[in-house]
Amino acid sequence: MDANQNNDPTKKTYHKKATGKALETVEKHSQDHELKLFGSCFCPFVQRVWISLEMKGLDYQYIEVDPYKKPQQLLEVNPRGLVPALRHGDWGCYESTVLMEYLEDLQKGEALLPSDPKLRAHSRLWSDHVNRHIVPGFYRYLQAQEEKSQIENGEELKEQISKLVDAADKSGPFFLGNKMTFVDVQMAPWVIRLRKVLQPYRGWPEPESGTRWAAWVNAIEQDHAVRATTSTDALYNESYQRYAEPPLCKSMIADSNSKKTAQTHLRYNKPSIPGADFPEAL
């Protein structure tokens, strides 16, 4: 019986292993290597670093971590036991953006930050926007239980995404143009979870066809490194259920009329979307 079940066999447990394409990638990188990524299958912060490793074509070992049974190897790198964490030889570090910067500084494989200092600063500025506004906004919206709060948080998330899209290259499809770079990788796990998590739980709308946002979402979803690190829909849906539908609020969530009202408001009264300060655990 798993730790989170508290000796209750009827209580739903949690996913401990990746599925689908992500599982195939885990199996390809299961052999011992000096560069080790500690991750959990449902964690978007892990996926950032994982995408970076795949894009760069680096050799590494992926170590799947059970969040309720943290291995000593992980605790030696991050005493809090949170993922992602990276061990490189006898050195270790954590926090997804820091780890992405570290992989850049190794100067191996495909560069995700441009060589031009101004574009690098531009990328870092909007990477910070993702971490300060979009990531926490995603979780506020997901965890909001009252209809009014869901509507307010949904509109705020759309507004923050709109700002990011406005700052992106006008032709795209990615943030800086036709190539996936640092900001895209920072944003990619949440783009994936808009459809896999927010759509079923909060009625998140599909991107409007022909917009800059739609082109960006499609490009991210089709990227080989993103696909290689993404599990099946069921894993995300089940992993996030306890955040979207806490036990004490399920009766309210089950009220289909209330939910449909909130979804309709978000679909037709949303800001136009043109063409970490959050714990790294979910």
TrEMBL record:
Pfam families assigned to the protein according to its UniProt record, in alphabetical order: GST_C_2, GST_N_3
Keyword Oxidoreductase in record: yes
SUPFAM superfamilies: GST C-terminal domain-like (SSF47616), Thioredoxin-like (SSF52833)
Signal peptide interval: none
Domain GST N-terminal: 33-111
InterPro entries: Glutathione-S-Trfase_C-like, Glutathione-S-Trfase_C_sf, Glutathione_S-Trfase, Glutathione_S-Trfase_N, GST_omega, GST_Omega/HSP26, Thioredoxin-like_sf
Entry keywords, A to Z: Oxidoreductase
Source organism, top-level taxon: Eukaryota
Domain GST C-terminal: 116-248
GO cellular component: cytoplasm
Molecular function as annotated in GO: glutathione dehydrogenase (ascorbate) activity; glutathione transferase activity
Name this polypeptide is given: Glutathione S-transferase
Organism name: Aureobasidium melanogenum
Taxonomic lineage from the root: Eukaryota, Fungi, Dikarya, Ascomycota, Pezizomycotina
